[in-house]
Design brief:
Elements lengths: L8 H34 L24 H6 L24 H22 L3 H25 L15 E6 L2 E7 L7 E3 L2 H4 L5 E10 L5 E14 L2 E10 L6 E3 L1 H6 L3 E3 L4 E6 L2 E5 L8
Parallel strand pairs: 2-7, 3-6
Antiparallel strand pairs: 1-2, 3-7, 4-5, 5-6, 8-9, 9-10
Helix pairs in contact: 1-3
Length: 285
């Protein structure tokens, strides 16, 4: 037991517990053995007679005592266990010698249990502790893996196509929207772009999202120049503040425009040349 090699604090603790149990068991055995020897010695009379035999002595010059006289004489033997007279300690009905043997048996069982536990490799316990630490660290890592990373979305995914064009010396904002059923010019842009409106040949009414009916009574010929693309487009005049010009389904249909949803670009052919319109990035608020 003492030659066991100790590498960790857990092994040192187990070794100390085993030595302590071993010392307790050894002490209990010594006490039990000495008690048994002492009891055996007390079982003999001081004069070498066996226990349980009646001592009969005859004094020279005196008449032997009769049986009745010896029986009536009180006994001088005192038991060291119960304190009563008439018997020795090994004959005492209250003797507790069996407790010593029981204690020894319990100690032996504890020693056997400790020996069986010592058969277990202490490194297995250390390994189990290490595995628990690893599992806890893995849980922390899993939380980081499961966490949704913050990804900046592509601004083109939610942005409506818009760009800027020149009308003379003035920069104007243009929006292309396939959901609009007409080409629109903002009423405030007429003076800005120095244009002249005329009466609409076929007046009508339009309704916005809130179902408010707005009469359309004017139209205007708007010059648009986008790089090599230059054209004048008829637009209906309406109160609008989202842009200066809005090109809807009429312009998309007339020019057979193709829209690419992911890149949010428009391409078409004008006078035998392919024209591509790229969107402008929205201004951050």
């Amino acid at each position: 037991m003492l030659t066991r090699q100790v590498y960790t604090l857990e092994e040192a603790f187990r070794c100390a517990v085993d030595i302590e149990q071993y010392m307790k068991a050894t002490t209990a055995r010594k006490v039990g053995a000495s008690t048994g020897e002492f009891s055996k010695k007390l079982g003999q009379t001081p004069f070498g007679f066996k226990s349980g035999s009646t001592a009969t002595t005859t004094d020279k010059g005196k008449k032997p005592m009769s049986g009745s006289a010896s029986a009536s004489k009180p006994s001088s033997i005192t038991c060291f266990v119960c304190g009563k007279t008439g018997h020795y300690m090994n004959q005492c009905p209250q003797r507790v010698l069996f407790l010593s043997s029981k204690t020894n048996a319990e100690n032996e069982e504890e020693i056997e249990d400790s020996v069986e536990e010592d058969d277990v490799d202490p490194m297995e316990e250390v390994a189990s502790v290490v595995e628990e630490d690893i599992e806890s660290s893995q849980l922390a890592v899993m939380r980081c893996i499961i966490a949704t990373p913050k990804i900046d979305p592509d601004w083109r995914r939610t942005a409506i196509f818009h760009m800027y064009f020149k009308c003379g010396e003035i920069n104007c904002k243009l929006i292309i929207d396939s959901g609009s059923c007409m080409n629109v010019l903002a009423m405030s842009a007429i003076a800005r772009m120095k244009l002249k409106a005329e009466t609409h040949p076929q007046p009508y009414k339009v309704a916005w999202v809130n179902e408010t009916m707005i009469p359309v009574t004017q139209r205007c010929l708007v010059p648009i120049q986008l790089g090599t693309y230059s054209e004048k487009i008829w637009c209906d005049v309406l109160p609008m503040n989202i842009a200066h010009v809005l090109l809807g389904r009429p312009w998309l249909y007339d020019r057979d425009v193709i829209h690419y949803g992911r890149s949010n670009t428009y391409t078409f052919t004008f006078k035998g040349k392919k024209v591509k319109l790229n969107p402008a990035k929205p201004k951050e608020p």
